[in-house]
């Protein structure tokens, strides 16, 4: 993973915690997750268009399910952060 070991990742995590604060981390994680999902969807469309086969668009139910999963993950992260603070 880019030559980063556990100590380096820990340092990066501490820097992010200092820069954004504990309250902003769940929002940051949520936005990173959404960006990752959009990137994956875009890369799938790119691969499909290179093959000449269109990728079917996600249904509203699939999009809603993904949004709910992201919200639940964010709530779990917030709860874990609160538990660590106590």
List segments where confidence is low: pLDDT < 50 over at least 5 consecutive residues: none
Average pLDDT, rounded to a whole number, is 81
| DSSP summary: helix tally | 3
Gyration radius, in Å: 17 Å
User: Any idea what the shape is?
Assistant: flat
- Measured by DSSP, the beta-strand proportion falls in under 5%
Alpha-beta content class: mainly alpha
Distance between the termini: 33 Å
> What's the structural domain tally?
1
The count of β-strands is 0
Give the helices and strands, then pairings:
Elements: H1 6-20, H2 25-51, H3 60-85
Question: What does this protein structure show overall?
Answer:
By secondary structure, the protein is an all-alpha fold. It has one domain. The protein is built from three helices and no strands. It has helices at residues 6-20, 25-51, 60-85. Helix 2 (25-51) runs antiparallel to helix 3 (60-85). The longest helix is centred in the middle third of the chain and has 27 residues, at 25-51. The radius of gyration is 17 Å and the shape is flat. The mean pLDDT is 81.
């Amino acid at each position: 993973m880019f030559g980063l070991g556990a100590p380096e990742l820990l340092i990066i995590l501490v820097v992010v915690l200092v820069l954004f604060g504990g309250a902003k981390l769940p929002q940051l994680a949520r936005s990173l997750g959404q960006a990752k999902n959009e990137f994956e969807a875009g890369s799938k469309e790119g691969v499909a268009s290179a093959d000449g086969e269109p990728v079917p668009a996600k249904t509203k139910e699939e999009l809603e399910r993904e949004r709910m999963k992201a919200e639940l993950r964010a709530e779990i992260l917030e709860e874990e952060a609160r538990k660590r603070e106590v």
